[in-house]
Amino acid sequence: MTRLRELLAVDPGSFRLDKTDPRGTPGLPDTKAVRKDPKAWARAEVTTIGTELAAYQEKLFAAAKRGRTAERVLLLLQAMDCGGKDGTVRGVFAGMNPTGIKAVSFGPPTDEEKQHDFLWRIDRALPPAGHVGVFNRSHYEDVLVVRVHNLVPEDIWSQRYDQINQFEAVQAEAGLTLVKVMLHISPDEQRQRLLDRLDDPAKHWKYNPGDVDERAKWADYQEAYQAALTRCSTPENPWFVVPADRKWYRNWAVATLLRDAMASIDPGYPPAEFDVEAERQRLLPAASTSDSHGS
Ligand code: ADP
């Protein structure tokens, strides 16, 4: 594991969400540039990482197209309301090729989805080989909002942690690299972001009065997150908790986690399946032909 992965990964035996500082900035390098202006440094770094991500994305896509890999990558984002999921996606994926990205948001299950088990809609939304996917919310809602609001009986939701671990293990076997990130904000930061939405008419569409009702259940949500993070952080599919009150740190950390994941499965460019030199000769005019054209 790289340093940032180690710092942010959830250790099921010792992790405590209530001891994790949402304003923290763990893992920033200790350099002059960072000390001088961490925000400017992080923003520039995200742009650089974006270029690397685009290159990894292209190689993954090319290798899958040639049938050389079944690998795919999925960034899964969970957060309290106003946690910055959309902003993270905009910031981290800015340099990548949108045609190779599959982004999916999950709301309350539709009538059709309710006819199936909770992982049915998730399975259908996974990225195909060679693609990079992003989930805005996920199957974890089925042990978060569902647990907090008792949407199904406890004997049902309590079995879901194991079911999730099994599902994710099977997907890992099939070539899915899952980067599970909880964006961790403080209640004060959430209040400020909600107030900002009220202050700006261009943001009213983002304001949902229901978010204030959910906010009243903060402690219940934190408890549900603590359980999900510790029960479903496995060596194969660890959870990462990213302090997210500072947007510049959040984007840098998520971009870095995604870059490290993509680097670890980099298949390289597929070799040509034709004779490069012969093809060049077919395209270049023969010397005599070019002479006749030249005069
Ligand atoms: P977001 O807040 O992610 O930008 P929305 O405002 O559309 O998007 O909120 C999606 C809502 O869907 C959230 O309130 C979330 O709790 C709810 N939701 C997602 N998955 C489920 C689920 N499995 N069961 C019940 N509610 C869910």
Can you give me a brief rundown of this structure?
The protein has 295 residues and is of the alpha/beta class. Helix content is 50%, strand content 11%. The chain has a five-stranded parallel sheet, with helices on both faces.
Q: What features would you describe in this structure?
A:
- This protein has 295 residues and is of the alpha/beta class.
- The protein has one domain (3-294): Rossmann fold (3-Layer(aba) Sandwich).
- The protein contains 15 helices and five strands.
- The chain has helices at residues 3-8, 32-36, 38-65, 85-92, 111-114, 120-125, 145-148, 154-157, 160-173, 187-199, 209-215, 218-231, 247-264, 276-283, 287-294, and strands at 72-79, 101-105, 132-136, 176-184, 239-243.
- The protein has a five-stranded parallel sheet with strand order 2-3-1-4-5, sandwiched between helices.
- Helix 3 runs parallel beside helix 13.
- The model has no long low-confidence stretch (mean pLDDT 95).
- Residues 81, 105-109, 136-137, 141-142, 145-146, 151, 208 line the site of adenosine-5'-diphosphate.
- The amount of helix comes to 40-55%
Bound molecule kinds, no repeats: adenosine-5'-diphosphate
Q: Into how many domains do the coordinates divide?
A: 1
CATH fold call: Rossmann fold
Low-confidence spans? none
**Number of helical segments?**
15
CATH superfamily: P-loop containing nucleotide triphosphate hydrolases
Identify the strand order in the major beta sheet: 2-3-1-4-5
Element order, helices and strands?
Answer: HHHEHEHHEHHHEHHHEHHH
Radius of gyration: 23 Å
Please tally the β strands and state the result. 5
Sheet having the most strands: 5 strands, parallel
| CATH domain class | Alpha Beta
